[in-house]
Here is the input.
Amino acid sequence: MPGDPAPASGSVAPATARTTTRPAAARVRKVTIPSPIGGLEGVYEFVEGVTPRALAVVCHPHPLFAGTMHNKVVFRTAEAFQHAGFATLRFNFRGVGASPGTHDDGQGEQEDARAAIWAVAPGVGRRDFSHLALCDKPKGVVQGTADELCPVADLERAFPAWADPKAKFLIDGADHFFNGKLREMQEALHTFLASPEAASFRAAVDARS
Here is the structure.
């Protein structure tokens, strides 16, 4: 059942649409969600400059029956959460829209949903990471300086208390989904995996092979 398409933009823009009832200050951003099968197509909606009460991931109806993230029920569900102070993420399951892959009878789709939830998982300011002060495992953090969900200031406050080995990489201007900065994010991960801080991790991997 096709629904009214939600507006989307490659950059942050006012979220205006002929039939929308979402908050006037809401913004819409196209995002690519990392997953094992590739980047899933998504739309992240938020109020700029305001910390959301929580984050809602809204899944669409059955892909074989015209379900997409633009389905009118999905669109209106996201709006309801936005009016309640939530940021929302809608996304297309594998094989739908611009998301890669093919329908997997619900098995792969569960993996897609987990990827979407992980993409908006709360950062260090919303979870208790104090246990990392006693964790001697390698810890690498890649953080965007313009992350609207997990402010870099939260990481800067928490990171010094974490036990070594650890490494921190700040990607200038990157948002939560690293839009336009995916290459820099990947380079940071390569750097960490080859760093002295990740030596014990490499050793453990080598021991298994």
